[in-house]
Amino acid sequence: MKRKHNPVARISPIKIFCHQIFLSGLEGKLLIDIGSGPTIYQFFSACESSQEIIATDYTDKNLQELEKWLKKMPGAFNWSPVVKYVDKWAEKEERVRRAIRRVLKCDVLKERPLEPVVLPASAGLISLCLEAACPTPQACRDALRYLRTLLRPGGHLVLSGSFETTFFMVGGKRFPALPLNEKFPREALQEAGFIIKKLEKVARAAETHLDNHSDYTGLFFLVAQRGD
Ligand SMILES: C[S@@+](CC[C@H](N)C(=O)[O-])C[C@H]1O[C@@H](n2cnc3c(N)ncnc32)[C@H](O)[C@@H]1O
């Protein structure tokens, strides 16, 4: 039986985690989201503590979608059904729009992921894209080292991802993913020069097991600090 993909089932734990993290004092002027996709839900909590947010992605299509939403252009995605649980959604939407200062091309497989743009070192990075972006575990370890250079010393990385994912579907199109085991995030972050401050793992919600948009077995959410 095919089930309709419910985005809220996947987004909720991420949203709750981001909310806890950003409300627990992860503050700083500049926050960069790495691999934003066309989505904006991740900015609802972040805009409480960061005055300036930079959204990034690898694909031009995703960057265009974000620009469309930012500029309220015709055909922009309507996020209200997905984020209806956010208090005072309409006010928040405007706040997020004001906070997002730039939408930039990014490639985490490059030593300088935002090249040719050079930004001041940021207080924080958020990311949910590594399993989609990295073809091998080594590429993923390298990407974490490259991302570290975007952070100021002592800055924080809020990283989320999934375990054992081999594919995910977007709009009927199948994308490959790098299956990460449960040890990987901790080992790879330590090797890349981060100190893990908080790590939560969530088993896949039972109600999503029949949903065939992806084969992940669980999700992880962590906060790590640049270790110098
Ligand atoms: C699973 S989606 C996650 C999107 C969004 N962060 C979210 O939370 O829903 C993975 C994203 O990684 C982006 N991506 C793929 N390869 C990348 C790369 N080499 N560098 C940066 N982002 C990449 C994709 O375009 C996609 O938007």
From TrEMBL:
PROSITE patterns: SAM_MT_NNMT_PNMT_TEMT. Keywords: Methyltransferase, S-adenosyl-L-methionine, Transferase. Pfam families: NNMT_PNMT_TEMT. GO terms for cellular component: cytosol. One of its GO terms (biological process) is methylation. GO terms for molecular function: nicotinamide N-methyltransferase activity. InterPro entries: NNMT_TEMT_trans, SAM-dependent_MTases_sf. Belongs to the class I-like SAM-binding methyltransferase superfamily. NNMT/PNMT/TEMT family. This is Nicotinamide N-methyltransferase. The lineage of its organism: Eukaryota, Metazoa, Chordata, Craniata, Vertebrata.
